[in-house]
Amino acid sequence: MNVRKAIKRDSRKLLELIGDKADFDRKMKGFSGEVSTTKEKIERTLFGDYPFAHALLLEVNGEVQGFALFHYRYSSFSGEPSIWLDDLLVVDQHRSKGFGAELMQVLKLEAEKSLSSHISWTASPHNTKAHDFYKKLGAEVERMDGKRPYFRWTI
User: Fold this and answer.
1) What three-state secondary structure class fits 115?
2) Measured between alpha carbons, how far apart are the two ends of the chain, in Å?
3) Contacts of 21 (CB under 8 A, 6+ apart)
4) Rounded to whole angstroms, what are the CA distances from 47 to 63, 73, 99?
5) How much is the pLDDT for 31?
6) Looking at residues 98-122, what average pLDDT do you find?
7) Residue 100 banded pLDDT, cuts 50, 70, 90
8) How would you label 113-131 residue by residue, b for 16+ Cβ within 10 Å and e otherwise?
9) Beta strand 118-122 with 63-75: parallel, antiparallel or unpaired?
10) By CB neighbour count within 10 A (0-12 exposed, 13-18 middle, 19+ buried), where does 108 fall?
11) Which CATH superfamily is domain 2-154 in?
């Protein structure tokens, strides 16, 4: 198992993983829309002159089996950056094997290197298995939006 930063030639695989994540989120009732991104948009927005987001890829036996997509935020009040985790996915047959935890640990290293204060994200209210996973990592529910939890993992 290996976690590495995505590069431009991974754009097609990222598009596929984003589609898989959307399918998963629909099943969890956390997303009901359609994916409108394209390989070209991913190339421009993640690997162009001004990267707006970044991705980590999980490889198992040399094949990409998961990803974490994130971007940096900045608080003018605290004067500190943080990371917003937009997507985290390990493909079906590789779930519950510790790969998601490894992706999160590598993301935590990215947060530490950038002097970020924390990592934040949200999860479907129906994905209680994920809620337990995040809490085991040390994340806390920072707030609730109705039944939707917003997590914070302090660095």
Assistant:
1) coil
2) 24
3) 87, 89
4) 21, 18, 25
5) 87
6) 98
7) very high
8) eeebbbbbbbbbbebeebb
9) unpaired
10) middle
11) Gcn5-related N-acetyltransferase (GNAT) (3.40.630.30)
Contact between 46 and 11 under an 8 Å Cβ cutoff? The reply is yes
- List the chain domain ranges: 2-154
CB–CB of 83/119 below 8 Å? yes
Give which of 67, 77, 56, 72 is closest to 119, Cα–Cα: 72
The owner of tokens 């500190």 is 80
Short-list 72, 56, 50, 86, CA closest to 117: 72
> In whole numbers, what is the pLDDT of the chain averaged over residues?
96
Helix locations, the chain, DSSP H: 11-27, 39-47, 99-113, 128-137
What's the rounded Cα separation, in Å, for the pair 131 and 148?
10
141, containing H or E segment: strand 140-145
pLDDT classification of 30: cutoffs 50, 70, 90 = confident
